[in-house]
Amino acid sequence: MPPVIRNKHGGPARLGSLRSQLLRWLLVPLLLLTCLNAVSVYFNAIDAADLAYDRSLLASTRALAERVAIKDGKVVADVPYVALDSFETDTLGRIFYKVSGLDGELVSGYDDLPPVPANVPRSEAYPALVRFYHADYNGEPVRIAALLQPVYDDSMRGIALIQVGETLNARQALSRKILAETLAWQAAFLLATGTLIWFAVRLVLRPLMRLKHEVETRAVSDLSDVDEALVHREVRPLVAAMNHTMTRLQNLIASQRRFIADASHQLRTPLTILKTQAQLALRENDVAAMREIVSSISVTTDSAIHLANRLLTLARIEHGSEVAAMGPVSLNEIVQQVGLELALAAVNKNIDLSLEAPDSKAIIFGHGLMLHELVSNLLDNAIRYTPQGGRVSMRLEVLDEGRGTLFEVIDSGLGVPEHERDKIFTPFYRVQAAMETNPVGTGLGLAIVHDIVALHGAGITLHDGPGGQGLRVSILFPSYGPEAQ
User: Fold this and answer.
1) Owning domain of residue 307
2) What's the pLDDT score for residue 350?
3) What value does the mean pLDDT take over residues 1-5?
4) Is residue 24 part of a domain?
5) What GO CC terms are in its UniProt record (predicted)?
6) Which of 393, 385, 322, 384 is nearest to 357 (CA)?
């Protein structure tokens, strides 16, 4: 999962505009690449221009070398001005030359032309003994080509040095022109590409704007699915998640409405009875009769409190408000504690209450109070609907090979017909035999058990008790270990 960007207060940072981020991530690299490309194009053009000017300078040097010869035992150079004028390459540049004899003596040209530096290598670009170098001459930068030219006649032979220098005015003017044209072309390219990117981003994000408009213009009560075809394939998982959330929200609202309707219906009866009993008490003058009515009010109040508590428990579980408090708990301790709490109720009905549990702790991942409520509801129902002298047993087993932890409550009571076992987990649903045995029951106990089981990712099944009598409730909790933490 990618890291969450935090602000200075530790909370998640507020993300800016998607359009601006896309434009930044596209245009900024494009700008950098364009700058690098402009630099590369500029220097490549300068190298090409230098190569062309050097070739022209070498041509001038060779033209001059062709006029160098040996006459009467001396090196001479026949260099009229018109010859120099013929190999000038640019009106902006000025040419200087020097012809040195076999022993380095001046034959013709400018005597103070800078000599060839010792560390200048021979040029490999041309099939000639030529060296190119930069120097300053009369306060101006010049580029000089130095060519070694063999000369000979019948009496002597040797190597003459021909140097031709050219000022850099023409090269610098060409460099400025190349730079200006490069920048102009790159700026035009960047502007055109940036404009296309801006329109492309705007066009690509248009489906998201349509989705935004679709969601904003919906009625408050409209929680139907959003059409995934409105957006691109990459955004469809987000729309699918939104639709899934809409469905969950619809279910939650429907559950709340159902809960409110059921709660108001169930609470109306005890409240009406309380109102009637209070009115009877107000009209009664006999103290003994009034005490009897007050006693009935107390019983009705206890029943209403019990119903309200169960309704609140059911609402809390359905809304998942207890998930954050879950952790490793010992199911042994919870089962033993509930057994001790309800032992007196079993003794009063002469019921044989037993517990079969392993010596080692059965640790599961869950919520202690919710699990206590689960075990208490199951055991209370088993005791309540088991006749005098019956049997109720609790069984706890840690299964092999990480298959989980099994908890069972087995009784010899009324049982539940097989065709009604799927219905008894519905809030307020009660089996006919149970209503006859306990008319004041709420029908919420097993609904609470079912929701707690679901909260813990467990499974619950109902079976006949031993010998086909009574009921066996089996709950299988997932295994808990280091891998589940």
Assistant:
1) 230-317
2) 92
3) 51
4) no
5) plasma membrane
6) 393
